[in-house]
Amino acid sequence: MTTISSSTSAISSVSSGGGSTSQIASLNKQIAQLQTQLKDLSSDTTLTDEQKSEEQTLVESQIQMIEAQIAQIEQQQAEKAQEKQASQKDATAASSKAADGVNRPTDSNTLNVYI
Predict the structure, then answer these.
(1) CA angle centred on 24, ends 22 and 29, rounded to 5°
(2) Of the N and C termini of the chain, which has fewer Cβ atoms inside 10 Å?
(3) Would you list the domain boundaries of the chain?
(4) Distance of alpha carbon 49 from its chain centroid, rounded?
(5) Distance separating alpha carbons of residues 52 and 44, to the nearest angstrom
(6) Phi, psi of 101 (to 5 degrees)
(7) Residue 27: which residues within 8 A CB-CB, separation 6 or more?
(8) What is the pLDDT of residues 43-76, one digit of tens each?
(9) Compositional bias (Polar residues) spans (predicted)?
């Protein structure tokens, strides 16, 4: 039981800061540790079947929570990339539509022809 509680505290500390790529790597490492813990659990003879079942449920739920955190981080990365791409597109569109006085006259550079 102590390994599970220490894993839970590590999860909360990872979500508090750091780069998103390093967060994902750290979370994947935690998943690997929990999967190893699940494998070791099946060969543990000190626990009853009921205790093993409870322990397995706890570890699996932790893995699901970590996977959800990874999905959330990846979604945030995708949103940031979309915002960045949209702002670059807006900047490019604004600079290409700038009036140059020839084909797109400015207010001070227009030609009115009356016949």
Answers:
(1) 95
(2) C
(3) 2-93
(4) 37
(5) 8
(6) 90, -10
(7) 11, 14, 66, 69, 70, 73
(8) 888 989 899 999 999 999 999 999 999 999 999 9
(9) 105-115
